[in-house]
Design brief:
Blueprint lengths: L4 E5 L9 E12 L6 E8 L2 E6 L2 E3 L6 E3 L2 E9 L3 E14 L4 E15 L2 E5 L4 E3 L2 E2 L2 E2 L6 E5 L3 E13 L7 E13 L11 E12 L13 E3 L5 E3 L39 E2 L18 E4 L5 E3 L4 E9 L3 E8 L4 E7 L1 E2 L8 E2 L4 E4 L12 E7 L15 H6 L30 E2 L3 H4 L7 H15 L7 E2 L12
Antiparallel strand pairs: 1-4, 2-3, 2-17, 4-7, 5-6, 6-8, 7-8, 8-9, 9-10, 9-11, 9-12, 12-13, 14-15, 15-16, 16-17, 18-19, 20-21, 21-29, 22-28, 23-24, 23-27, 24-25, 25-29, 26-28, 30-31
Length: 478
């Protein structure tokens, strides 16, 4: 079993606008609906290291065993910035020898010079990799099938270098040396489980150019270069509130997971309301766009990814988050109800139904809509304010023409009570035309509508589903 010792030292001094952070972990086992099991973790700032003699999961090692582990993370910030993360695992054995590697290493570095930023992931490696008895060539983002029960990716990685007009550059890179995904139950682990080995991540932000030397108020340069009097600038009265900080506009990092689709099925409309003032919401500005659609219109997963933080909060009402394979995160709020796929830890495909349009939370009394946000992986270090304008993405994403549940989808999830203070979701029909025949979300009304539909279609086609929200709040708001 794991035996870790960790130590840390102070980070470097800070100056200008440069920034840096790093993190690494040796092994992480994620099981749907359970807290992840993790061996060896380090993050910076401050500088940190962790070591272990071995790790096994579960306790008898039937799914995974390792030899020695070592992780480290460091960052230094001054006029320039630097960050590095490293994760090493010796003697990896999964599922009794079906996957074997003599060593696994993830390494990410980043540094700045002037207003530019760069980094590298090339030192990452997997040595002696054998899968189902056959040697495997290791290459970045190489996908290897695991019979009929899953797949693995070698040196899974992504890099984002972003900068806005007139601003300094940032670099964000991460690598998972070996990432195993189970699509069916195997070795005692359920479908949807994920095992990550050798994760490393580094972020650096270059310092901004020195600000121009301020001119004294009340002067302006004339054509001859001499300073002449000008009207004084308006001043803020003592005790008046400070001006609001500018909204982070002009940022549109490239999302790289691929296969994105529009988040609402059927007729809808939206405008660019990102950054609009919201006086009753923490942050005072709108972190996304509102997509208006009929009550109960299906809400879709915009990408292949992992669902998390399914539940309720006072601002978002019924809400959930989705993280795609590259780490970009998407926030959906004000749902009238969740679908059976809206489960913490559930892996979903782009276009699958996660819930239904409504106006729960602080949207009560407003037209039915989905509040939708985009949080690129390169800006997650900013916390909830790392959102960017979703309008360009919405304009580019494909709108699906047909969305239906499979007939047996209700059997995919275990029935459970609502664990949050959300109003109990009602029964939902998947086609908006069916919903229009019923009285809002009244279950009896919908059952009558479905009975009429079933009688005309011979009992086939769409299904009536009663769904319940699962999970605990993420903590972020609107």
């Amino acid at each position: 079993m794991i035996l870790l010792a960790a130590g840390s030292a102070g980070a470097g001094g800070s100056a200008a606008s440069a920034g840096a952070s790093a993190r690494a972990y040796a092994v992480k086992v994620s099981i749907p609906g359970q807290a992840a099991s993790q061996a060896g973790y380090a993050s910076a700032p401050p500088y940190a290291t962790a070591f272990g003699s071995s790790f096994a999961y579960p306790a008898d090692g039937t799914a995974l065993t390792t030899g020695a582990l070592a992780v480290s993370a460091s960052s230094d910030v001054g006029p320039t910035a630097a960050a590095s993360a490293s994760s090493e695992v010796d003697s990896l054995i999964l599922f009794g020898g079906e996957i074997v590697a003599s060593s696994v290493k993830g390494e990410a570095t980043g540094s700045t010079k002037g207003r530019t930023a760069r980094g590298a992931l090339a030192s990452s490696s997997v040595a002696g990799l054998t899968v189902l008895g056959q040697p495997v060539t290791v290459a970045p983002n190489n996908r290897v099938a695991l019979a009929d029960w899953g797949y693995l990716i070698t040196l899974e990685q992504s890099v984002d270098t972003s900068s806005a007009s007139g601003r300094a550059q940032a670099y964000h890179g991460f690598v998972t040396a070996l990432d195993i995904h189970l699509t069916a139950e195997h070795g005692g682990l359920p479908a949807g489980s994920e095992i990550q080995v050798g994760y490393a991540e580094a972020f650096v932000q270059a310092s901004a150019a020195p600000p121009a030397k301020p001119e004294p108020p009340g002067t302006v340069k004339g054509k001859n270069g001499k300073k002449t009097p000008n009207a004084p600038e308006p001043s803020r009265k003592k005790g008046s509130p400070a001006p609001l900080l500018p909204i982070p506009t002009g940022l549109a990092p490239k999302l790289t997971a691929g296969g994105y689709v529009f988040p609402v099925y059927g007729p809808s409309s939206y405008g660019d309301s990102f950054g609009a003032f919201r006086g009753d919401v923490p942050g005072n500005w709108h972190h996304g766009d509102d997509i208006f659609a009929p009550l109960g219109a299906p809400i879709l997963a915009v990408a292949d990814g992992l669902v998390f933080s399914v539940g309720w909060n006072d601002l978002g009402g019924n809400r959930l988050w989705l993280r795609d394979s590259q780490g970009n995160e998407f926030y959906f709020a004000h749902l009238s109800a969740f679908s059976p796929l809206a489960r913490n830890g559930k892996h979903v495909k782009a276009g699958e139904v996660l819930g239904f349009v409504g106006n729960t939370g602080d949207a009560a009394g407003t037209p039915y809509h989905l509040h939708f946000e985009v949080h690129p992986v390169s800006l997650l270090f900013m916390g909830y304010d790392g959102a960017v304008d979703p309008t360009p993405y919405l304009q580019a994403w494909q709108k699906l023409r047909d969305v239906r549940f499979l007939p047996n989808i209700a059997g995919w999830v275990r029935w459970a009570p609502v664990s949050d203070p959300a109003p109990k979701p009602g029964a939902i029909l998947l086609q908006v035309s069916d919903i229009s025949e019923a009285d809002g979300l009244d279950p009896g009304s919908l059952e009558r509508a479905m009975a009429e539909k079933a009688s005309t279609e011979g009992g086939g086609g769409d299904r009536l589903l009663t769904t319940h929200g699962l999970g605990r709040p993420r903590g972020a708001g609107y």
